[in-house]
Each structure stands twice: as C-alpha cells, then as structure tokens.
Design brief:
Number of strands: 17
Number of helices: 14
Distance between the termini: 103 Å
Strand content: 15-25%
Helix content: 40-55%
Radius of gyration: 46 Å
Pfam families: HATPase_c, HisKA
Catalytic activity: ATP + protein L-histidine = ADP + protein N-phospho-L-histidine
Shape: rod-shaped
GO molecular function: ATP binding
Protein name: histidine kinase
EC number: 2.7.13.3
Structural class: alpha+beta
Length: 529
C-alpha cells in the first residue's frame, strides 16, 4: 500500500485527539540520542547514509533549488542524517527535528513511524498530517533492509512539489542503497579472497580471460614463469598460449571448457628440478547461460613433498636391501669357510699352494664383503686405527692390474700428499675395490683410470677418474639407491656400500660425470691431528 485511505487517516487523527495531542503545536521529541550514542549509530549506518547521499546528490542536480530534503532513520525511528535543500532543513529544525531525535506515536501520525510500524512505504500529504504546522508538507517514507542495519528513508517537500512518483522514486533509492551495500559486501569478500589467493607465497596464480589473455598473476607465478622463460616478460594482456608447459593446458581448458586438475609440472634438470602440481579451472557465468568468462590456474610447489616421499621410498628399499643382503651373506659364508679351511689344511700337510698368501688375503676380503652385506641388515661395531690410504690402494691395485691389462685399461696412481687417517682397513680396501670396479666397468672398450691422493681442507682426498662412457644427470642423482643400476648384471649395492663406509668414517663423497667424457669420484676422509 503506497497511500493511506481517507478513513484510515481520520482514524489516526481521532486517536491523536483522544490522546490529548494539540494539532496546533508540534510536540517536542520524546527521546533523543546522546552524542556518544549518535556517533555509534552513525558508524553503524555510515555506508547506507553514504549510498543514499550519492543518489540524492545526483537527483538534486536535476531539480536545482527545489525544496526537497531526504532523511535516514534507524529501525527505532531515530533521525540519523538529513541531506538536501538547506532552507527545507532549517525549516524542520525549528520544530526541534534534529539528528538523534526519535519519531514515534508520541509525535502524532508521521510517515516514518507508520512506515516502521507496518513495514511498507507510506505517504502523508498536506492535511494527512495531524499537526497544522506540518500540513504544508508532503512526506514519503520507505523501509530499507541490509545485513547490518534496517530503517527508513524519507523524502520531505512542500505540498506544491508533491507528486505520486516521489514515493516510487523513494522506493528506488531504498533499493539502490540496499543493492549498493550488497555489492560492497560482495566486492569486499572478493577482494579478500583475491588478496588471499594472489598474495600467498605457496601458490603461483595465473588468471586469464576467455581468450587466453592474462588478467592477473601473482609474484610466485612470475618467479615460476621466469624459470621457464628467463627472457620473456609476462603481464596483463599477454597471451598465455606461448608459455612453455602452461600454454597448452590453458588452451585445452578454454577449448573444452573442462578443468585440468593435479597435473605434474617439472622445471629444471635432475637435482636442481622443481616440481609443481598444476590445476587449471574454467570460470563460467551462470547468468549468461554458462559462458566462459575466466580461466584460473594455480601451481603449488611440491618439491619438498616429493623429496620427502623419495627419501622414504629409499629408506624402505634400503631396509629391504639389508634384509636380502643379510640372508645372502649367511648362505655364502658357509662354503667360503669350507674353502678357506681346505686351503689352510693343504698347506699344513706340506702341499704347495700357488699364490697362497694372495688367495688367503682375497678370501679374507670376501669374508669382509659378506660382513658389509650383513652391515646393511644389522650395523656392526668396527675398530678404527691409524692407517695410510696409499698402501691400502697399492694392495687393491695389485689385484686389479692383471684384469685391467687384459681389458686394455691403463691404471695410474699419483701420490701428491698423504696423511694418516683413522679407519677400518678392510672397509677402506672395500671402498677402493668397489670404486675401481665401477671405473673399469665404465670402460668396456679400454681406456684410462687415474687415481690421485692429496690433502685438502683437513681431509685426505682420494680422486678416481676415468674416461669412460659417463652418465646422464638423471642417472647420477640416483646413484647409491639400492637396486638402481644401469648394468645388466648389477644390483645397485656397490656404491651403496661405499657411501655407508664413507659415512661411517665421517667423510663425504662427490661424483661428477658427463656422457662421453667420463666420471670423477672424490672421497674426502678426515685426517688425524
């Protein structure tokens, strides 16, 4: 209902007269907010007042000097703000109508009180007012409702300016204010989500329009793109399709309208590679029939997660290797003990055994190898003594030289500097044996192996290099993993044993290799002081 019927107006006037209200005197307000209360209210209703004032300012520019005033109240009828013609505002103030006062039935019939009471637009024009001093006015009130506040918006003008369309205009103002506040809330939420998404260091974010042109991207994504194409500059307006790795994915999503979730993206080579999980999702406008409006992609760095999983996998493989090695070692040790006993028995009976000392020495080393295999399954205590590496190396080279000559391999050793180290002699011997065997296997058609001993930064440095086939970076980073090998008859345990030996001696090992050029292994063992 937009206007009150004559019978209803007469009933309102009768009730006012029966309550003793004087039609010739506008009563003083029954209640007025304190300054502190008014400030608190204004803070709550700040946005609705700003929205109303913007609309009114635009409207007043089309009706210059018209006696129009617009008022905003809260849900209890407290007048919070007035805006419009200054003369009109001054005219109301002489009746004590100021910010903070409350409109209620104490004041007699008013459009504000009736609007709040019945929850619908109300107009009082001329003699519809009970008090004679207000009968030269036309007042129109409409309710507004937002998530934070409710109240009324009122237009007041003189009777000459009254028009039925003013109530419709007022309803439009209320609707405009409600929608603007809702839009503000939505924009604020979108801005918060946008900041949270774009400013996170954990995700790279890239947003494009329906044509594949970049709309926005965050710093994490810029870093990722620089690693893909250091010479390219990507920013708003640049096509995404030219990007390596990402361009084809965005093209698929735009053409098919289907998301791509959980895609692996690897940037870089081997040990320096970074791994990302890529999600690219289309955003459609449901209001326009589901047409594509945006495509958003996120790239999450999962390098650490993948590294952790690989370490766990290696640990599981190592545990299995230890169990397998221990069981095999037990089976080998029994016949080895028998052979060693028979050789010693033959010599004790006066029989000549060619190369007896070398055979016994190698059998001792075989027994030590078995001990190392058992070490993978169950670590054993070893006793360290002061030793010098070069003498141990010469013992190993004595075994290797015959086989090396047969395979057309030249082995040279250079002693630049040597210091004593604390070590378990047989373990160091095993380390030399495994490294030299790997070097020989890398020279199937002959070649050269160089062994060099020097002192460097408080460590005995042992360098073994060959000019063999070399290794790719992908193979190099997996060296030492149990059962990972490129040899047809290998088991991947040789270098694993070497790493365990070096680690037990508190040293370190570095391996460098290039395909077609060869491999260099540097072992660093702390020297004695």
């Amino acid at each position: 209902m937009t206007a009150l019927t004559k019978s209803w107006i007469r009933e309102l006037h009768r009730q006012a007269a029966e309550s003793g209200k004087d039609p010739n005197a506008v009563p003083a307000p029954s209640y007025k907010l304190t300054d502190a209360e008014l400030r608190e209210k204004l803070e709550i209703y700040k946005e609705i007042i700003e929205a109303v004032n913007r609309f009114v300012d635009k409207f007043l520019t089309t009706v210059t000097d018209s006696p129009i005033m617009v008022a905003v109240t809260d849900e209890s009828g407290h007048l919070l703000a007035v805006h419009g013609n200054e003369a009109m505002i001054g005219n109301f103030r002489r009746f004590g109508i100021v910010e903070g006062m409350r409109y209620d039935d104490h004041n007699g019939p008013s459009s504000i009180d009736l609007c709040l009471r019945y929850g619908r637009p109300v107009q009082l024009v001329g003699e519809d007012h009970y008090h004679k001093d207000l009968q030269h006015l036309a007042c129109y009130s409409a309710p507004y409702h937002t998530s934070e506040a409710n109240g009324t918006i009122t237009i007041m003008t003189d009777v000459e300016g009254a028009h039925p369309h003013l109530l419709a205009l007022l309803c439009t103002i209320a609707d405009y204010a409600e929608r603007e506040l809702l839009l503000r809330r939505q924009n604020m939420q979108l801005q918060i989500l946008n900041q949270a998404l774009l400013h996170t260091p954990h995700y790279g974010v890239l947003l494009t329009d329906e044509r594949g042109l970049i709309v926005e991207l965050n710093d994490s994504m810029r870093c990722l793109l620089r690693s893909l194409s250091p010479d390219e500059q990507y920013g708003p307006g640049v096509p995404v399709f030219s990007m390596p790795h990402l361009g084809d994915v965005y093209r698929e999503v735009i053409e098919s309208g289907e998301e791509r979730i959980g895609m692996d993206l690897t940037i870089g080579q081997a040990s320096s590679a970074r791994h990302y999980m890529l999600d690219v999702v289309p955003i459609v406008d449901a209001a326009s029939g589901g047409s594509l409006v945006r495509v958003i992609g996120t790239a999450r760095d999962i390098t650490e997660l993948r590294t952790t999983k690989e370490r766990l996998h290696r640990a599981e493989k190592l545990a299995f290797a230890g169990q397998l090695a221990a069981s095999v070692a037990h089976e080998i040790r029994n016949p080895l003990t028998t052979v060693k006993g028979l050789i010693q028995l033959s010599r004790s009976n006066g029989r000549s055994v060619p190369h007896h000392d070398l055979i016994v020495s190698e059998m001792e080393r075989m027994n030590m190898i078995i001990g190392e295999l058992l070490l993978l399954g169950k670590p054993q205590a070893v006793q360290f003594k002061e030793e010098r590496c070069y003498g141990i190396l010469l013992e190993v080279l004595e075994v290797f030289c015959i086989q090396a000559k047969m395979n057309g391999i030249e082995i040279s050793s250079v002693l630049l500097q040597e210091e004593a180290i604390r070590c378990e002699r047989n373990q160091i011997k095993q380390m030399f044996f495994n490294l030299l065997r790997n070097a020989m296997e890398a020279l199937p058609y002959g070649g050269k192996i160089d062994v060099e001993l020097a002192v460097e930064d408080g460590h005995q440095r042992i360098r073994i290099s060959d000019n063999g086939v070399g290794m790719e970076e992908e193979v190099l980073v997996r060296l030492g993993e149990p059962f990972h090998t490129t040899k047809p008859d290998g088991n991947g345990l040789g270098l694993l044993v070497v790493r365990n030996i070096v680690s037990a001696h508190r040293g370190r090992i570095d391996i460098a290799s290039r395909p077609g050029i060869g491999t260099t292994v540097n072992v660093y063992l702390p020297i004695c002081y």
